[in-house]
Specification:
Strand content: 35-45%
Strand order of the largest sheet: 8-7-6-5-9
Low-confidence stretches: none
Mean pLDDT: 86
Radius of gyration: 16 Å
Order of helices and strands: EEHHEEHEEEEE
Largest sheet: 5 strands, antiparallel
Structural class: alpha+beta
Distance between the termini: 49 Å
Length: 142
Amino acid sequence: MKTYKIYITLINGVEDEMESTEDEIKKFGNVNDLVFACVRYPIRRIIVKSSEKDRGDLTYEYTYEQWLQNGIRIEAENDPGFEDYTGYGGRTDGKFNRFYLGRSTGWIPIYLEVLQRNSHGGGALMHENRKLKPLYHLPARR
């Protein structure tokens, strides 16, 4: 049975981890629902790592969720050596690119880079080796 390590960071910075099988995750619907059912504190980040991969998949990030829910356009500044030469943002020599956030479906949902608001999908969000920032901010709550 395939097992997954789930790394959880709470809002206050405390880190925790749990281990779960594929069947346990699917019973809850997806990994985020499993974690939110088990952890009663506000969560900042969830990263899921299988035993076969050396890197983890970011499935939940509090800030990214705010951007996703509000349809905010994101600008990514890529570190040297990680430039994006796909042709989008061609005037920036791969240093900057812009996109909206989306989410994949399935039991390990990851963030997607959606190039246009009306696109049906996109590639996986590379959240390491780059700085992400919103192009406009949410209005302050009163």
